[in-house]
Each structure stands twice: as structure tokens, then as C-alpha cells.
């Protein structure tokens, strides 16, 4: 999947995290499947931190989410 598509999805998910219902539903999913793939829970945990710290500031939230996506998975792995 091209990185820019994943970035857009994660930006949208971060905006949806402002709803407690969406956040609770996603947290339950992550708890069930946290052991695969490796690092998934930490990625989405960081996404939640970004969503909370940038609530109401769409430009900053989008920029930070894009940086998160580009930094994960580890450098050198092909995501495109």
C-alpha cells in the first residue's frame, strides 16, 4: 500500500479518536490482537497521544501523524 494512503487513513482515524466510542472500540481491537503484528499497539498508542495532544489543531495533528507513519515500521523496510 502506498504510504500516502496509509497516512490519510491514520489522519482520519486520529480525528475520529476524539469520539470516546471510536477510541474504546479500537482499544478493544488492539487488546485482542496486540501480539500481531509486532509493534501495532505501540503505533496506535502513539496515534492516540497525537490525537489527544493536537485536539482541535488539524494541521499539527496531520503533520505529526504523517511523521509517525513515515517512521514506522523501522527505517529501511519497504512500505510502498
Break the fold down into its secondary structure elements and pairings.
Elements (H helix, E strand, L loop, with lengths): L2 H14 L3 H14 L6 H14 L4 H14 L9
Helix pairs in contact: 1-4, 2-3, 3-4
Report helical residue fraction. over 70%
Largest beta sheet, briefly? none
Determine the mean pLDDT: 81
State the helix count: 4
Our estimate of the beta-strand percent is under 5%
Order of helices and strands: HHHH
Q: What Rg is obtained from the alpha carbons, in whole angstroms?
A: 12 Å
Low-confidence stretches: none
> Quick one: how many beta strands?
0
Q: Termini distance?
A: 5 Å
**Overall geometry:** globular
What structural class should be given to the helix and strand makeup? mainly alpha
Keywords:
80 residues; mainly alpha; 4 helices; 70% helix; globular
Account of the 3D structure:
The relative contact order is 0.19. It is built from 4 helices and no strands. The protein has a domain at 1-16 and 41-72. The mean pLDDT is 81. α1 (3-16) crosses α4, α2 (20-33) runs antiparallel to α3 (40-53) and α3 packs antiparallel against α4. The chain has helices at residues 3-16, 20-33, 40-53, 58-71. With 80 residues, the protein is mainly α.
Kindly summarize this structure in a few lines.
This protein is an all-alpha fold.
Amino acid at each position: 500500500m502506498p504510504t500516502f494512503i496509509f497516512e490519510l487513513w491514520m489522519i482520519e482515524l486520529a480525528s475520529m479518536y476524539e469520539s470516546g466510542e471510536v477510541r474504546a472500540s479500537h482499544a478493544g481491537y488492539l487488546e485482542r490482537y496486540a501480539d500481531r503484528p509486532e509493534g501495532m499497539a505501540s503505533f496506535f498508542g502513539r496515534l492516540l497521544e497525537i490525537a489527544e495532544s493536537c485536539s482541535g489543531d488539524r494541521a499539527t495533528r496531520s503533520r505529526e501523524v504523517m511523521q509517525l507513519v513515515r517512521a514506522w515500521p523501522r527505517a529501511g523496510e519497504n512500505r510502498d
